[in-house]
Amino acid sequence: MNSVAKRAVILLTRPSAALHSVNWELQQWRGIRVKVRNSNLEQALTILQRKMQSSGIERMIKNEQTHHIKNSEKRVLAKKNLERKIRGQDLARKLKAILVKKVSYGYDKVVMN
After folding, report:
1. DNA repair: is it a keyword of this entry (predicted)?
2. Which of 15, 35, 36, 94 has the greatest count of CB atoms below 10 A from its CB?
C-alpha cells in the first residue's frame, strides 16, 4: 500500500489523526522556527533551546560524535556499556524469578526478604 492510499485510509477512518500526521510532517519539513521579537535575541535563543530539547534534536546532536576517540577511551566506553548491559540482564532475571514465584505460588505464600 503506497503512502497516498495510507493517508486516504487514515483520513477516512480518523480525520483528526490524519490532520495531526500531516501537520507533523509539515513541521518536520520546515524545521524549528523561532521569531525574534523586539530585537530580544536572548529570549529567542532560550525558546529555541527549549524547542530543541522537546523535539529530541539536542539529544541527537550530542550522540553524534564528530571528534576522534582514542582506542583506550573506546575500550573504557565498551566496558561500561557491557557492565550496564549485564546489570540490566541480571536485574531482569531476578525480577522474572520473583514474578514467577508470585504467579505460581500465589501472593500470600511468597515471603519477601
Report:
1. no
2. 36
